[in-house]
Specification:
- The chain is built from 13 helices and 18 strands.
- By secondary structure, it is of the alpha+beta class.
- It has three domains: about 160 residues, GAF domain (Beta-Lactamase, 2-Layer Sandwich), CATH 3.30.450.40; about 140 residues, Beta-Lactamase (2-Layer Sandwich), CATH 3.30.450; about 170 residues, 2-Layer Sandwich (Alpha-Beta Plaits).
- A six-stranded antiparallel beta sheet has the order 3-2-1-6-5-4, with helices on both faces. A six-stranded antiparallel beta sheet has the order 9-8-7-12-11-10.
- It starts with a helix and ends with a helix.
Length: about 500
């Protein structure tokens, strides 16, 4: 009768709810009450790490709730490893025993099996020596089959609910990305939705350019590493392998990875998904967690579907951006105009501020250009402007921006740079123009330039442009054909105070 009663109660627990935690709680209560156990627990198997961890327990001493055991440890590990019940009638004389409660004197561990696969262990502990006789062991073994069924049903139900939720997110992202054609807005929205739905610590979108990968958007609570500065080499770290192999990769514990490259301080595990549209790899969707082992193979399919939608939306937004840029091109030189400069300088300042990085504004002027026009005509002057523009464009990185600011004056934005590098770039351009043989111009053409960097020379658009202009003016006054740094904002403030 006892066997029928316990199996009936166990069956009722299996059928009463699909909530995993509730099912486990009921199973443990039945085992405790029928078999007079002080400590009882269900440990689940982490397949990837081959470790057991407690999912639900009654009676364990404080501090053991987060214990993880390998399959080589304890009575529970032996039961999972050997796929049969393991009984220790006197744990104090059992060398394989691992304590979870000081009152325990005997322990019985029974593997929870689905078909022929171990999914966990039912761990039963008593304060009495030799508590479990053959009848109890047989009955608990039968009981464990009901527990296994309950566990599997709850897990399948949970998985289906998760898949349904992921499908809703995929549809929502598809709807939202179709309506958003501004790339910056699109990427921020995508990161936000993924971070909230998949409950990860941080989500980032890294897009390719000629110099590697650039962080274009992120959402989460993590702290960016100062050294990262928003730019990453395309061949390094997990993202480099994901791009090279063209498939999703997971890093369960970044601290044990020899190839790990830090981007956020709190990261403990990471997933990288290539963004591919029509065969073209655009970049990487990177998800990060503050916990080890947070990402599972079951999430990959849903996240790859999200990544495919994002990649297509990014490509569409890129085409729209290209069309928009036509309004920002200078008709004579083909480079960007002042209107585009005004937009991009604000974006570069914001990016430098967010990632604790640097950027520079370089103001350039062709020396004595009016005299050149007067002596050789405006057609030749226009050709000099076109050739100088072309030289600047070819010598700068893809992430940098050169604009015709007005007349013979140019404005250059250097991303992710410092004062020394900015000066070196401006000096390289000056030397190139000085030695260039302009067809039809028998005399040497030179330029003067002023350089201002964030945050040394200013933290706003007006401060940086004013400082670079001051450097350009000083270069002109100093004899032309030279490059000078503008005054820092601290020096400018001190001079203003003495006026």
């Amino acid at each position: 009768m006892q066997k029928i009663a316990i199996l009936y109660d166990a069956s009722q627990a299996v059928l009463s709810t699909f909530d995993l935690d509730e099912v486990l709680r009921q199973i443990l209560q039945i085992a405790r009450d029928y078999f007079h156990l002080q400590n009882v627990a269900i440990l689940l198997l982490d397949k990837e790490k081959q470790e057991l961890y407690p999912r639900s327990q009654i009676g364990w001493d404080a501090g053991h709730e987060s214990t993880r055991l390998s399959l080589e440890q304890g009575v529970t590990g032996a039961a999972a490893r050997q796929k049969r019940p393991i009984y220790s009638p006197d744990v104090l004389n059992d060398p394989q025993y691992v304590s979870s409660a000081r009152s325990t004197r005997s322990e019985l561990a029974i593997p929870l099996m689905v078909r022929d696969e171990v999914v966990g262990v039912l761990d039963c502990q008593s304060e009495n020596l030799h508590h479990f006789d053959n009848d109890k062991i047989d009955l608990l073994t039968l009981f464990s089959t009901q527990a296994s069924m309950a566990l599997q049903n709850a897990r399948l139900y949970s998985l289906e609910r998760q898949r349904a939720r992921h499908l809703e997110v995929i549809n929502a992202i598809a709807r939202e990305t179709t309506a958003v054609l501004d790339q910056e807005e699109l990427l921020i929205k995508v990161c936000s939705v993924i971070q909230q739905t998949f409950r990860v610590g941080h989500v980032s979108v890294l897009l390719r350019d000629d110099d590697g990968l650039m962080l274009r958007a992120s959402q989460g609570k993590f702290t960016a590493c100062a050294a990262a500065g928003g730019r990453l080499p395309a061949t390094s770290g997990l993202w480099g392998r994901a791009l090279a192999l063209g498939k999703t990769l997971i890093e369960d514990d970044v601290r044990s990875s020899s190839e790990y490259v830090g981007f956020y301080q709190e990261t403990r595990s990471r997933m990288c998904i290539p963004l591919v549209s029509f065969g073209q790899t655009l970049g990487v969707l990177m998800l990060e967690s503050e916990h080890s082992g947070s990402f599972h193979e079951g999430d990959v399919e849903s996240l790859e579907a999200v990544a495919d939608i994002c990649a297509t939306a990014i490509q569409n937004a890129h085409y729209v951006e290209r069309v928009k840029q036509l309004a920002y091109l200078d008709g004579l030189t083909g480079i960007f105009n002042r209107r585009f400069f005004e937009l991009r300088v604000l974006e570069e300042i914001d990016r430098a501020r967010r990632f604790n990085g640097g950027m520079a504004v370089v103001m350039v002027d062709i020396d004595q250009f009016k005299r050149l026009n007067d002596e050789f005509g405006h057609l030749l002057g226009d050709e000099v402007l076109r050739q100088v523009s072309s030289m600047f464009h070819q010598q700068l990185r893809k992430i940098d921006v050169v604009c015709r600011y007005g007349g013979e004056e140019f404005a250059i934005l250097l991303s992710q740079t410092n004062p020394q590098h900015a000066l070196a770039v401006a000096e390289k351009l000056r030397r190139l123009v000085e030695t260039w043989q302009f067809p039809g111009v028998p005399q040497c053409v030179t330029i003067s330039a002023g350089v201002a960097t964030y945050p040394d020379h200013g933290t706003t658009r007006d401060e940086l442009v004013k400082s670079a202009d001051a450097g350009l003016y000083a270069a002109k006054q100093g004899g032309r054909n030279r490059v000078l740094l503008g005054p820092t904002r601290y020096k400018a403030a001190a001079q203003a105070g003495t006026d």
